[in-house]
Amino acid sequence: MSEFMLETKNLGISFGGLKAVQDVNLKIKKNELYGLVGPNGAGKTTLFNMLTGVYQPTTGTFFLDGQELKGMSQEKINHKGIARTFQNIRLFNNMSVIRNVLVALHNQPEFKYSPFDGMLHTPKYFDVEIRMRDKAKELLDVFGLLDERNNLACNLSYGTQRKLEIARALATNPKLLLLDEPAAGMNPNETAELMEIIKKIRDDFDLTVLLIEHDMKFVSGLCDEVTVLNFGTTLAQGETKEALNNPEVIKAYIGG
Amino acid sequence: MSNFISNVKKQFKFKHIATWVIVAAVAVVLVIMSESGLLNRSTIGLLSRIAYSIILAVSLNLVVGFLGELSLGHAGFMCLGAYIGTFVASLLRESIDNKLLVLILAMLVGGLVAAFFGFIIGLPALRLKGDYLAIVTLAFGEIVRNIFKNLEIFGGAMGYNSKTYNQKDLFVIAFVVVIIVLILTQNLIRSKHGRAITAIRDNEIAAKAMGINVTFYKLFVFVVAAFFAGIAGVIYGHFTTPVLYTTFSYNYSIEILVMVVLGGMGSINGSIIAATLITVINFVLQSKLSGGLAAIRLLVYALILIFVVIFNNAPALKPIKERFSIHNLKEKRIAKKKGTIVDDAAEWNRIETKVKMDSILTPDLPHNENVTPDKEDKSPKEVK
Ligand SMILES: Nc1ncnc2c1ncn2[C@@H]1O[C@H](COP(=O)(O)OP(=O)(O)OP(=O)(O)O)[C@@H](O)[C@H]1O
Ligand SMILES: [Mg+2]
Predict the structure, then answer these.
(1) Looking at chain B, which terminus has fewer C-beta neighbours within 10 angstroms, N or C?
(2) Which of ligand 1's atoms lies nearest the C-alpha of A55?
(3) What's the A104 CA to ligand 2 centre distance in angstroms?
(4) Under an 8 A CB cutoff, do A120 and B187 touch?
(5) Helix (H) or strand (E) holding A68
(6) Residue nearest to atom 30 of ligand 1 (CA)
(7) Could you tell me the residue range of the domain that residue B50 belongs to?
(8) Which residues of B touch A111 (CB under 8 A)?
(9) Long-range CB contacts (< 8 A, 24+ apart) of B145-154?
(10) Which of A222, A213, A211, A97 shows the shortest CA–CA distance to A165?
(11) Whose CA is nearest to atom 22 of ligand 1?
(12) Assigned domain for B207 exists
């Protein structure tokens, strides 16, 4: 067990000649709500992609709860305890809401059964499937999605899809949750509700949350600390108000 | 909540019993029909053909419709099953008297050998997609049949003279196998493993991010599909002699694919209907257009296929089809009953369909997402 839930050391990646992310050092304490901000193209999503194994970093490394995860596959990293949502929503569109969550419950040890149990519909299959559905309903209830459970995911409104994506990520039982612009496309009411939900799941599920967001009110209302990226490098880091009022940061946002 | 559970359990218990009753009933009816002389030789021949065509179409649907990978070598697995299965059967017959037992063992061995090659073909499928995978699987099918063509113990270019099974008995056994394959496939799709497979098809990146072991499931689907296709081959081999390498050409693989596409990718019922339809059309054309007319058989066959495809997609016919579709009747029945418990049970039973051919042919184009692929070739692909 480490003091920090997530620690990155000089993490960086380049695509051809383009250094998309350079020397990022994050130290995120357990149960913290941590923000990652920066103008378009700063490398925020790329950083998430490195932390979830989509891209392999070209420099540096990162640790989850003291364990080095660099080099592992996406699946393995998820098993170790990092779950994410996507900036461009990636739900299983043709599946119902509850099925999206059921897919994510796949690897939980209490829900294991073999393909043969599945093919033969043994008593174990029924036992597990019924418990899985109860668990999925519990999760959907947290996000107020219980009544939508039998609808197709693609028929949900944009804001609701974002919430479902968080519910799905939670179903993999993560220690660290990465949210890529969770409030994008939401109206002010939905945004306010989302802030409450994020605080609630942080407490109820014992989570650490790292989130990317362009809405500064959202970030300052939610995050204890932030890191500001610009052109792949760290511009400012630390307590939210302070970092966001840093003249360099204001300049980067105005485009000076 | 507990109401729902007992409801589901009851429903499934009933379904379980019902499916096995249907299996037994079908077998009994078929036996009675064949024993009473209701069926002549050629009808029995047709029924056997329908039986193995259904197995082939449904198993290919697992790969193409549910996993979303294009495979053009399905006849190769059937070829393995046909040669190996009949060969093993002729060896076993010397020591085992019970003919049925020999057939069952031959099916297992033929299926397992095909499954092993399914695993081998699954390996490139982990890296290749779309057209590239199609080429590899196509090559596989051609290689397999040409190897058998050149093996003397399998009769070489003359084909392997297998001992056929009594056709009256064989088609009953074949139908029992069909129903077992159908039950296993449907059950698989309705399990968490089936969900994982369709999740990979719908959005591979998201599936990986949810911790789904994509490697395992891709190989698994290829192995299961090859196993079933191998069994279909064993049935074929016991019904036709000689087992000849020319049968398993890529034309045949394409014909199986046509059954899958026509019936609807990801639709098991559709595969059953399309397999039956195409087999019957082929059979009728073969028996009716003999002699001088045999030359135009393929032309007529192609015309019928084009007609069926157009008919299948005609917008003007949509309302009529919707009125008579089994799916809609089911939905209506459910809507009448209403209530979340019924909805939950219906959701449980639902089988994912709705994939478009384009999304399988175009590598890296996420299914059901309206994105235009990047013009510049970036590698690795940008994920947002
Ligand atoms: N696979 C890739 N190949 C080449 N360049 C890439 C790749 N992935 C990201 N980039 C580049 O890295 C830079 C950072 O992109 P990224 O998506 O991380 O930005 P972002 O901070 O998330 O921006 P936004 O706020 O718009 O989401 C961009 O210039 C992008 O074009
Ligand atoms: Mg981004």
Answers:
(1) N
(2) 1
(3) 23
(4) yes
(5) strand A67-68
(6) A41
(7) 41-361
(8) 192
(9) B145/B75, B145/B76, B145/B79, B145/B245, B145/B246, B145/B248, B145/B249, B146/B245, B148/B79, B148/B83, B148/B245, B149/B245, B153/B87, B154/B83, B154/B87, B154/B243
(10) A97
(11) A45
(12) yes
Smallest CA–CA separation between B212 and chain A, in Å?
Answer: 6
Q: Domain count of chain B? A: 1
| Residues of B in Cβ contact (< 8 Å) with A93 | 202-203, 367-369
Tell me which of A36, A45, A226 to substitute to probe ligand 1's pocket, judged by most ligand atoms within 8 Å of the beta carbon. Answer: A45
Residue A105 with chain B: CB contacts under 8 Å: 192
pLDDT band at A1 (very low <50, low <70, confident <90, very high): low
In the structure encoding, which two tokens stand for residue B116, read together?
């092993």
Answer whether A164's CB lies under 8 Å from B227's CB: no
Distance in Å, alpha carbon of B75 to nearest chain A alpha carbon? 24
pLDDT tens digits, A48-78: 999 999 999 999 999 999 999 999 999 999 9
Domain contains B368: no
Is residue A46 within 8 Å of A13, Cβ to Cβ?
A: yes
Q: What is the pLDDT of residue B337?
A: 64
**Confidence at residue B373, expressed as pLDDT on a 0 to 100 scale:** 36
**B188–A150 C-beta distance less than 8 A:** no
State CA A41 to chain mean position distance. Answer: 19
The minimal CB distance from A92 to the residues B206, B220, B353 is found for B206
SS3 A18: strand
Q: Which residues of chain B have pLDDT under 70?
A: 1-16, 18-20, 312-314, 318, 321-342, 353-381
As given in the structure block, the two tokens for residue A126 are 């029924």
Q: What is the pLDDT of residues B291-338, one digit of tens each?
A: 777 777 778 778 887 887 777 666 777 677 666 666 666 666 666 666
Provide the shortest C-alpha distance from residue A96 to chain B (in Å).
8
**CB neighbours of B113 closer than 8 A, spacing ≥ 6?**
B80, B81, B84, B230
| B374 occurs within a structural domain | no
Does residue B156 form part of some domain?
Answer: yes
Our answer on whether the CB atom of B369 is closer than 6 Å to any ligand 1 atom is no
Q: Using CB atoms and an 8 Å cut-off, which of residues 88-127 of chain A contact chain B?
A: 88, 90-96, 98-99, 102-107, 111, 113, 115, 117-121, 125-126
Give me the CATH number covering residue B222. 1.10.3470
Task: Show residues of chain A in contact with B199, CB under 8 Å.
Answer: 92, 95, 103
Place of tokens 């840093």: A246
Q: Which domains does chain A show, CATH number per domain?
A: 1-81+174-256 (3.40.50.300), 91-171 (no CATH)
Helices (H), chain B: 2-35, 41-61, 74-92, 99-125, 130-149, 167-189, 192-202, 204-209, 214-239, 250-263, 268-288, 297-313, 318-324, 326-337, 340-349, 357-361
* CB nearest to B384's CB, from A88, A99, A121: A88
